[in-house]
Structure formats: structure tokens, C-alpha cells
Automatic annotation (TrEMBL):
Region listing for Disordered, in residue ranges: 1-24
Annotated protein name in UniProt: Four helix bundle protein
NCBIfam families: four helix bundle protein
Compositionally biased tracts (Polar residues): 9-23
Top-level lineage group: Bacteria
Source species: Lacipirellula parvula
Amino acid sequence: MNHADIEGMTNSRMTNDECQSAESPVYDLEERTAAFAETVIDFVLEIDRGPVTSPLISQLVRSATSVGANYCEADDAESKKDFRHKIGLCRKEARETKYWFRMVVRAMPETKKAARSLWKEANELHLIFSKIRCSCDKA
């Protein structure tokens, strides 16, 4: 199931698709973080639960879904300081997600291929939020 399958659960704000020309790249970070979280959920639904994997899965889902939730909060920040803080949380959660992917792969080596692409996305999100945070520090 993708985000389009869930009617009425997305923001009514204009998306970057509607704002940009056909030649412009789309940078919808809210959508990207939500899609990432959904993909992580799909990934963990395929993993057998056990005494080692259950807590790892819980932590992975918490951190991966928290990236987007914190970005939504940052998007509605009450001040520059609040925005900077919430972007910092996004960065920390993306980094933590990379850690939990490493632990899941250690516990279940057969997940390595699927986890690798998700780890790369978590890394890209971490770098994006790091850059945003650095830009905030310079402003």
C-alpha cells in the first residue's frame, strides 16, 4: 500500500508537484520521509519475530517513523529556534535508524540486501537534515 491508497490522510497543502514546472526536480521532504517510513514498515512486516528481532524491529520502526513526524513538527515550528531543534531531532532519528538497520542485519543476515537500500535512504536523510541544520546555524 502506498500513500495514494490512503484517502484523506495526507495534508491538503499544495505539494511541490503543483508548485514546480515540469523541468524542476521535486523536493518534497515530507512525502519522502513518509514514504521512507512506509517502506520500513513493509520491510519489518516480512521479518520473523523472536526474542532478539522483536525489540530491534520496535526500535527501527520508532526511529524511522519519527524522522517524518519530527519533520512535520519542524515544518510547523513556532520559531527559528524551534525549527532548528526539530530538524536536529530529524537528523538524530535518521542516524539512529541506520544503527537499528545494522543490528537487524546482524540478527538476520538474510535481510542485508533489502536493508542496505533502506540504510542508504536513512543516510541520505541524515545528510539532508545535517545540511539544513548547518544552514540554520549560519543564519
